[in-house]
Input
Amino acid sequence: MNEEILQMKYWYKAIGAGVFTLFSAPLFAQECSINVSTWGGNYQRTYESIIPEFEKLHNCKVNLVIGVSQDFVVKARAGEVDVMTNTMIHTTAAEQDGLLLKLDEKLIPNLASLYDNARHSPNIVWANVGDYALVYNSKYVTEEPTTWDVLWDEKYRNRVGMWSIESQAAALLAVQQANAHGGSFENIEPGLKRLAELVNSGNAVAQTDAESQLVSLFETEEAWLGPLTTGRIKDLWDRGLDHIKIARPKEGTFPTITAMSIINTTKQPEIAQKFIDFALGETAQVAFAVNNLYAPTNKNVKLPDDFKLRGVLVQGEAFDNLLLVDFTELNKVRGAWQEQYMRMVNQ
Output
């Protein structure tokens, strides 16, 4: 089975999924349905390719709520989400606000098969792990970058695709830069100054919290380099953009952890628990590894032997070099960081 056929196995059965949903949805839609949040693009497509298996098994319709990370918490508060797929920074914020339901080991037997750190709390589990790597267009960036400091190089004026300060990626880059320039998590000012320099110098072509916009900037070659998740890099490769390359700087990269949780207002708590179990099972874990380059958190899952991109997954040394922070503590200071940063940019 070659790489193209392998991808078709986990993506294009979504065509069959559409047929299944079309003809069988009336049988269960009125009795059982749950809303699951997710990002658009590759992540949405992978969900769409595997959800029919869950629907058939549990006779329950799954509706995907597509959007950006911060919107999912808002929708959760409004009762529009049952199962939340989100970043750690937003999921831990929801936990602090008392929005999450405790995960039930009896209904989620796959919890027992996870790596220890993937069981973040009684309410939050890691479904898969990727990273924000340093992406670059090899047509214009001819040498592989070895450090994040390349983003500040004056020859990349108006060519750096950057996240907004509200994003997890920007917060983690601020921590990394603080560590490298005499600061720390507790003394974040040096890191925030560095982020502000990206904007004030004119290097940043854009600041956005919508990852799809960053993908578009790389696709149109408006951005030549910047932090992007492995899943979105795969999206660009799938579009034939082989000149987009990935580098993991010597300072390490930033984790993009898919956190999953259940909103405590759900009217289908048992089905929601079973969906979490499904996301931690082999079908979902393999699909997100093959299609999105997100490493499994279930230690018993075996990836296909002919999966050629396994070396891109965040495993081994790459995992050891992840910049991990206490996301609960990060949420406590994030608002103050944003205010401080905005003052620096507006000076």
